[in-house]
Amino acid sequence: MNDEVAVISTTEGDMVVKFWTDVAPNTVENFKKLAKQGFYDGTAFHRIVKGFMVQGGDPLSKSDDENVGTGGPGYKIKAEFNNKPHVRGVLSMARSQNPDSAGSQFFICLADARFLDKQYTAFGELIKGDDVLEKIGNTPTESSRGGERSKPTKRVGVNSVKIVPGTAA
């Protein structure tokens, strides 16, 4: 169903995302499938880069594992690069160096990140909850193991991701 949206319920409030099935149908289906299985429930936004993006979707973030940032659903999906620009509120798939290495991790842009265009699969946009995105984006961070200042100093939990009809959100 093309009119479905995702309600991302976090410890900071709810965000609603509209999907771009026209440009990334397989990515959207993968995200919906994982959400409907409860895969994202209990995870956290484990990477927050001020003025850039917030990242979640790692199952290892459920247990505060030190390998957080490396987890996934046990499979990879093919990239669906498209012409949608990476601007504030855009939902996109996180991946490693390999373009076809995305699985479950996603990020939401806090600002224009056009350098990611056509290199990451953008598959939706925030239609409600910009204030929640802002709150998450302003979470204090410290250096991660890799040295990037992106590790939240407090847990920003994802209570659930529910797929609902657009009219219900």
Can you give a write-up of this model?
- About 10% of the residues lie in helices and about 30% in strands.
- The chain has about 170 residues and is mostly beta strands.
- It has an eight-stranded antiparallel beta sheet with strand order 3-4-6-5-7-2-1-10. It has a two-stranded antiparallel ribbon with strand order 8-9.
- The mean pLDDT is about 95.
Strand order of the largest sheet: 3-4-6-5-7-2-1-10
Biggest sheet: strands, sense, closure? 8 strands, antiparallel
The helix/strand class is: mainly beta
Q: What is the count of helical runs?
A: 2
Number of strands: 10
The rounded distance between the terminal residues' Cα atoms is: 15 Å
List low-confidence stretches.
Answer: none
> What is the helix/strand order?
EEHEEEEEHEEE
Question: Mean pLDDT, as a whole number?
Answer: 95
Beta-strand residue fraction: 25-35%
